[in-house]
Amino acid sequence: MPARINHYEAVLRICVDELGEGGIRGRVVSRRLTEPMPFSDVGHLLLQLEEVFDRQNFPQAFERRRTFGARQEESSLPLAQTLEQGMDPEEVARAAGQVTTFDLYVITRRNTTWQGFVDWLDGSPRSHYKSVLELLKLIDLLSFSERK
After folding, report:
1. What angle do CA 77, 81, 82 make, to 5 degrees?
2. How is 79-132 classified by DSSP, letter by letter?
3. Helix (H) or strand (E) segment spanning residue 54
4. What's the domain of life for this entry (predicted)?
């Protein structure tokens, strides 16, 4: 990714298409990706996003993982090398989930977790989080409110 990328260009739009007892399913769209990236549950979503951040080195990790093993294999994720090679901004802006949609901003990755905010596209006020656990609670609250 280019050094000039900013957090607003790196937004991840989370489109939730299914909501059930097992959690949420949907897809992620972003200029950071070449095509929508599906996820099957919240855990899958978080693991894929962490890999996106690691491979694109944005936001840069506060601590680096060290291993004595072989290098990581190539990713099967639809990663763009630059924002210009990623999804069209208008396509990202039009994307919407069947259940709900929100924009995820990860500003930093300090203390081996994420910090940032969520813009809810249903008009709810912006939510800030200081850790992945807080983000999970926000998503769980969303899931709970949508089930009612």
Report:
1. 130
2. B-SSGGGS--HHHHHH---SSEEEEEEEEEB-TTS-EEEEEETTSPPPEEESSH
3. helix 42-56
4. Bacteria
Instruction: State the DSSP code for 46.
Output: H
Give how far Cα 17 sits from Cα of 12, 23, 100, 132, Å: 15, 11, 7, 22
The H or E element spanning position 23 is strand 23-29
Q: Dump pLDDT digits (tens) for 40-69.
A: 999 999 999 999 999 998 998 887 766 666
**Using an 8 Å Cβ cutoff, are 12 and 58 in contact?**
no
Which pLDDT belongs to residue 107? 95
Q: How far is 43 from 122, CA to CA, in rounded Å?
A: 23
For the chain, what is the mean pLDDT?
88
CA–CA dist 106, 8 (Å, integer): 10
Confidence (pTM)? 0.88
